[in-house]
Amino acid sequence: MKRKQKAVLWLLVWICAAILPAGCTGAKKEEEKRSIRIGVSLYRGDDTFINNIRSELENCAKEYEQENGVKVTLDIQDAKGSQNTQNNQVERFISLGCDVMCINPVDRTAASAMIDKAMAAEIPVVFFNRQPVEEDMNRWDQIYYVGAVARESAVLQGSIVVEQYQKDPKSLDLNEDGVVSYVLLEGESSHQDSLIRTEWSIRTLKDGGVPIEKITGGIANWERSQASALMEQWLEQYPDTIELVVCNNDDMALGAIDALERAQVQGINLVGIDATIPGLEAVRAGKLLGTVSSDKEQYAGAIFSIAAAKALGQAAPGELSLEEGKYYWSPQKIVVQP
Ligand code: GAL
User: Is residue 289 within 6 Å of ligand 1 at its C-beta?
Assistant: First the structure.
């Protein structure tokens, strides 16, 4: 081969090498997914807080479609409190070819079977609100969790009462005996939030110098009707004694308010957690002393943006600064009466 021919050949090789990767990227771009399918399973669709998150997820999907031109199918299923049903929903999501699953586990200690299925099908999972045990979370690098720090919610809840006591002790110590007598409404015993919230809100009251005395407490499983029944019973059992109702969530506070209204009892203070839509209305109406809001937009936004990135085969969004590369903690704040 003559020198000139050789030079031309090398030039051709060089041009191809320069062009090919761009061409590959171009071809890949054309192949890029224009639609994603996200399977969402809720532990109970009738839970007020979970319902608020669900609405935000739907908003996120709409916004994402508009901004990115990627069609999003959100397949939202209600497990109605049954782990068995949820396991079947996971199987169905897999058979339908979901790109990612967002799971609000019914039984947070039973996530392992769902993880097995997801791993076998290589479908990433974003768990939320009910935190799987660490051992399960560490089984695969395609497992994420979005939630709110339970201790932070509780400390914020406690500080609502501490501030109120510092401002006006008599508004809490109604009979002015130097002690604030309280009852406690707790969420599900198996939920990570219940125990931690109870412990830390009471600890915050004590540390904040509120002289407290517990009358009684009970588990109302986050539910308004169960809380209402318990409160009704306590009002009969301890007439003119209860001064404060500490509730692990807003729905139970609303249940206690229902009982107070039925019994026509006034003056008792209540605090909740969640800042659900009816919870916020109760604060505005002066029925609830305060609540703790975990930003639902950011909460659902984190679930959705991790899910969308995973569905497209990308890394989780860097701006979420996930703890240990897998946990997102939603920011929280106090909401009190104006
Ligand atoms: C809690 C929330 C409760 C309930 C529960 C369900 O974080 O405060 O209201 O929704 O999750 O798992």
Answer: no
Interval 147-175: pLDDT, tens: 999 999 999 999 999 999 999 999 999 99
Q: Is the four-CA dihedral 150, 153, 156, 161 of positive or negative sign? A: negative
CA of 50 to the centre of ligand 1 (A): 7
Residue 47 Cα to ligand 1 middle (Å):
8
Q: Which amino acid is at 22?
A: A
Best CA proximity match to 148, nearest among 337, 335, 333:
333
Per-residue tokens: 317: 């969004």
Give the model's pLDDT for residue 28.
Answer: 42
Q: What is the pLDDT of residue 33?
A: 86
Cα 284 to chain centroid distance, Å, stands at: 23
pTM of the model: 0.89
How far apart CA 182 and CA 158 sit, in angstroms, is 13
The CATH number of 34-147+296-330, from 3.40.50.1820, 3.40.50.2300, 2.40.50.140, 3.30.428.10, is 3.40.50.2300
Q: What is the CATH number of domain 150-294?
A: 3.40.50.2300
* 129 close to ligand 1 (CB < 6 Angstrom): yes
